[in-house]
What does this fold into?
Amino acid sequence: MTDAPRLPDYVDGLDFPLSREDLVRRAQELGADTALLQALRALPAERFVNAEQLLAEIGRPG
It folds into this structure.
């Protein structure tokens, strides 16, 4: 089981826009599991302008 349902917890409090690296760092600090960290690292290396864009990108099939 992954921490993916907790993704909004990891995003909460972050200032947008944010990069993939910012998101991975935040998830690590909050103790995300390996599966979620791998999923975040697989995101495109772009800046996300808001939480909705980020969550939509996470939901896209790889």
